[in-house]
Each structure stands twice: as C-alpha cells, then as structure tokens.
Design the sequence.
C-alpha cells in the first residue's frame, strides 16, 4: 500500500481494497467498487433533456417525483447501462458510413453526426 501513501490507507481498509504490487492488481468486493463508481459519478453532469428524451420512463419518473434526470443517471442509470452515446461512438466513422448525414452536417442542416445519431440514427439502426 506504500505507493498510495498513508493518506488513503484508511479508505482502502474501509472499502476492503487489496493491492498486489508484484502482479500490479487490485481486488475488492463488488460493493466497494460500486461505492467508488458512485463517488466518481457525483462529478458527472449529463444533458437532462437528452437523457429524458432517450429514456421516456425516466422522464415520467422525474415528472412524478423529486429525483432529477442527473440523479437518476448517477444512482441507477449508469448501472443499468443507460448511456447517452455508445462508449465507442466514432463520429468520423458514422459520417463515413452515412454519407447523407455527412452532407447534411456540411450544409448546416444538422449540428453534428452525434446529434443525428442520438435523435434519429439509433432508432433508424444506422451503422455507427
């Protein structure tokens, strides 16, 4: 644990994190990993309107309760796999596979390939 310093030793003990410096590995209970991910997610902001557009059930929930779309994503959405864009989305490839969208972006009819994909392309099952 020396490479982390004593500053984090209490946290590591609390979360039951074990380090194997020789194998350069870390092991911890799933609950501890979830706690760490939730802590990181507290610094993640999302486009709430887009999130609610993509997930109408979340929009319905936010209208009926005190939870915001951002809070939903941080507490549940991330762990349910509710992402706004595919983690491997490549705007250049999307335009290459969809020349009509490339032209529409170039002509200013659409802001970006990502905007098109999020609003239309995914539902149209366009190659991304």
Sequence:
């Amino acid at each position: 644990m020396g490479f982390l310093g004593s500053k984090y030793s209490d946290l590591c003990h609390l979360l039951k994190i074990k380090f194997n410096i020789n194998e350069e590995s870390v092991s911890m209970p799933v609950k501890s990993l979830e706690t760490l991910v939730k802590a990181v997610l507290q610094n993640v902001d999302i486009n709430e309107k887009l999130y609610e557009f993509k997930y109408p059930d979340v929009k319905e929930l936010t209208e009926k309760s005190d939870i915001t779309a951002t809070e939903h994503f941080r507490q549940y959405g991330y762990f349910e796999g509710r992402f706004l864009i595919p983690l491997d989305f490549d705007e250049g490839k999307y335009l290459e596979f969809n020349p009509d969208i490339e032209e529409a972006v170039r002509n200013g009819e659409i802001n970006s390939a990502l905007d098109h994909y999020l609003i239309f392309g995914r539902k149209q099952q366009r190659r991304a």
